[in-house]
Design a protein that fits this description.
about 100 residues, mainly alpha, 6 helices
Amino acid sequence: MPQFADRGVDEEHYTHLRDWATWPGYTDQERMAVEYAERFALDHESITPELIARMRGLFSDEEILDLGISVGSWMAYGRLTRVLGLDRACQPMDDQS
């Protein structure tokens, strides 16, 4: 992820994603974004007014909308590529001859 390293997002950010709630390397905004994305993906009905109120303490309404659109778009893209078998059609760069 060299293109994001200059913004403070390095490989370690991805390594600790499963530990988002406890890893000290995440900011409060990053933790909130991961919690929201996880709930959006796994149990969208758990996104309560209380969660949105907590988000509003860290994000503007425009940022919350942008985060929701981003999460939804990437989920839809991932599911579409899976359904169409495109996730299996591409070889990793290492395997190409």
